[in-house]
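Reminder to self: tokens first, then the designed residues, so the page reads top to bottom the way the pipeline ran.
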């Protein structure tokens, strides 16, 4: 699965997840309001449900933060690997350029020497 597919899944997941949570909350509130209980009991139930939802929200938030940190750490590792590999390739490239430079300088020297020999031969 490629990164764009994962991003699409994430972009679809979050709205659906929050819609489900909102639906659950609305259903719980409506269910409590129509339940055959006294107002005091209903308020107590609503308060308990609210606290449960807050705790669940905190737990989900912490899980999301942990997963985000994991993703960030993996991204940093990949970036470091890419940086190391690019540094290695740059060094190899510099070595190849230096080798080519040495070969060219040697060929130029040889060419000058041969040209001088030809020039000396023609002058004599």
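Designed residues (124 positions):
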């Amino acid at each position: 699965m490629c990164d764009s597919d994962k991003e699409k899944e994430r972009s679809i997941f979050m709205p659906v997840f929050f819609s489900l949570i909102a639906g659950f909350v609305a259903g719980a509130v409506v269910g409590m309001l129509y339940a055959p209980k006294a107002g005091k009991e209903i308020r107590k139930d609503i308060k308990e449900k609210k606290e449960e939802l807050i705790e669940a929200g905190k737990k989900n938030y912490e899980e999301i933060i942990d997963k985000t940190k994991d993703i960030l750490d993996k991204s940093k590792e990949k970036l470091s690997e890419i940086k190391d590999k690019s540094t290695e390739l740059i060094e190899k490239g510099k070595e190849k350029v230096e080798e080519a430079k040495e070969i060219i300088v040697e060929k130029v020297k040889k060419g000058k020497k041969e040209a001088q020999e030809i020039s000396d031969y023609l002058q004599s």
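Helices lie at 3-33, 39-123.
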